[in-house]
UniProtKB/TrEMBL annotation:
Keywords: Cell outer membrane, Ion transport, Lipoprotein, Membrane, Palmitate, Polysaccharide transport, Porin, Signal, Sugar transport, Transmembrane, Transmembrane beta strand, Transport. Its main location: membrane. Residues 90-162 form the Polysaccharide export protein N-terminal domain. This is SLBB domain-containing protein. Residues 1-33 form the signal peptide. It is found in: Cell outer membrane.
């Protein structure tokens, strides 16, 4: 294109010489990038942060460069961030209002010292002034501070250490004994609290707690994570006992179905209630004294005559059999195979626990001796029929009534009310009353009078056989307030009748004799 232009204009000598001169001048002149410059570099952006101290002269520290973070006194904790499997991850501790830190600027002692993060989450540092560090890790805050000091110190070497962590504000809700918000202050050398520490501060778990699905919510992670404390108990998995941070929310959900055996194991866990106070429960049905009671293991031990006195361990929780003991024990009509415990959870729902105390007596199944909690209602239903051998076995149970009263009247040596063990047979009551009057009693048959719960009165004759075992025909088990009537023998009845007839005539002869007739 240039050759065409030259060919066109070279035909005009003056114009051609002008164009050649212009091209030569352009080729001899360097471009802008090639021009040498002696002007100083443009100044850096000026920080508007007010300077407290005048800037010192430039200091040349040793050749080391960059930011150094020393892990000493800068603890990290496991936090409840979630991965794809909804499991907690680990992240560094983040600074917040109330934290005390130490800033070390290498070879510049006048800028070093201890500082506290203010209520607005800032640090007020020499020269650079106020700097927001809330939500930053010590390492990240070190980098930020180093960048600020780079305007005044050549290649600054900054170390930021956590001296004392701020009090942690956490919330614990759900199936714990004292739900609410708690502030935990950390002393020197103390590690950050964990989930189990928080549960203990909240009074321990209740009997309806689902420890397999403990929920943790964090301010920067509202979706939440779960921890399986049962895995901690069974497999010693410390990873489930997550360390906490400020603002964490812990929720202990309610279990769908209560496993009595698991509940007994949880009662010995480190995050169970450390001390067991008496609890208020209601006991209805076939017990001697139904009604509301304040129950603890110690009160049950003192009530039960079969146990030694002296109280019990303060950590031992009250169980269903101990509550029945406090209520005087079961009656002879109790159906111990269908006992129920009704429980109200923190959510307001009502759970029913089926208990078979017969398995406890026959197989030693301690899981049937359910651990109680505040507000439980125990219902002991009425049995349709109880065999004599079963009644005898129930009489020796620790949760049966210790003593019952029956009335033995008629021809016995010591008639009146007698005290006998619960479910004792008829023969035993006769023996406690001194036995038959050998001259007057009808020894082969007695009458048994019983007041039934429905208000009716049952009366029947029982053939007496002192050699017989407990049975419904000849040696039935007794119930409270039964009446045993021992009648007179036939000869005694005839003699007494004859005396009633003869006595007036004898009195008449005596009167005649008195007047000398």
């Amino acid at each position: 294109m240039i050759s065409n232009i030259l060919r066109k204009h070279f035909n005009q000598p003056l114009v051609g010489l002008t164009i050649l001169a212009a091209i030569a001048a352009a080729g001899a002149t360097p471009v802008k990038a090639q021009l040498p410059t002696f002007s100083p570099p443009p100044p850096k952006e000026i920080d508007n942060t007010p300077i407290i101290l005048p800037p010192p002269p430039l200091i040349q520290p040793p050749a080391a460069t960059g930011v150094r973070t020393v892990p000493i006194n800068s603890p990290t904790i496991a936090t409840a961030q979630c991965n794809r499997n909804n499991r907690p991850l680990t992240e560094a501790y983040t600074l917040g209002s109330g934290d005390q830190v130490r800033l070390d600027l290498f070879d510049v002692p006048e800028y070093s010292g201890q500082y506290q993060v203010l209520v607005d989450g800032t640090l007020n540092l020499p020269v650079i002034g106020s700097l927001s560090v809330a939500g930053l890790t010590p390492s990240t805050a070190s980098e930020l501070i180093s960048g600020r000091y780079a305007r005044y110190v050549r290649r600054p070497l900054v170390t930021l250490s956590l001296i004392k962590a701020r009090p942690l504000k956490i919330a614990v809700g759900g199936e714990v004994n004292r739900p609410g918000a708690y502030s935990i202050s950390l002393t020197d050398g103390q590690q950050f609290p964990t989930i189990t520490d928080a549960i203990k501060i909240a009074g321990g778990i209740t009997r309806a707690a689902d420890v397999r699905s403990v929920q943790i919510r964090r301010v920067d992670n509202r979706r939440g994570c779960t921890a399986d404390l049962w895995n901690l108990l069974q497999n010693s998995n410390l990873g489930e006992d997550i360390s906490l941070r400020d603002g964490d929310e812990i929720l202990i959900p309610t279990t769908i179905g209560i496993d009595p055996l698991e509940s007994r194991q949880l009662s010995t866990a480190s995050f169970a209630p450390s001390t067991v106070e008496p609890i208020k429960v209601a006991i209805v049905g076939e017990v001697v004294r139904p009604g509301p009671y304040s129950v603890s293991a110690a009160t049950a031990s003192a009530t039960n005559a079969d146990r030694t006195s002296g109280g019990s361990n303060s950590r031992e929780p009250a169980t269903i059999t101990q509550a029945i003991q406090v209520a005087g024990g079961i009656t002879q009509l109790a159906d111990i195979r269908r006992v129920q415990v009704q429980r109200t959870t923190r959510e307001g729902t009502r759970q029913v626990i089926e208990v078979n105390l017969w398995n406890l007596l026959q197989e030693g199944d301690l899981s049937q001796d359910v651990i109680l909690q505040e507000g439980d209602t125990i219902t002991v239903p009425t049995a349709v029929a109880i065999s004599a051998p079963e009644a005898t076995e129930l009489a020796s149970a620790s949760f049966s009534a210790a003593i019952i009263s029956v009335n033995v009247v008629g021809e016995v040596k010591k008639p009146g009310v007698v005290q006998i063990p619960a479910n004792s047979p008829l023969n035993q009551a006769l023996l406690v009353a001194g036995g038959f009057d050998p001259r007057r009693a009808k020894k082969n048959v007695v009458e048994l009078i019983r007041l039934n719960p429905n208000g009716t009165v049952e009366k029947r004759e029982v053939e007496v056989d002192f050699t017989a075992a407990v049975n419904d025909q000849t040696n039935p088990p007794l119930r409270p307030n039964d009446v045993i009537v021992v009648n007179r023998s036939g000869l005694t009845s005839f003699t007494d009748t004859l005396n009633n007839v003869v006595s007036p005539i004898g009195g008449l002869f005596t009167l005649f004799r008195f007047f000398g007739l």
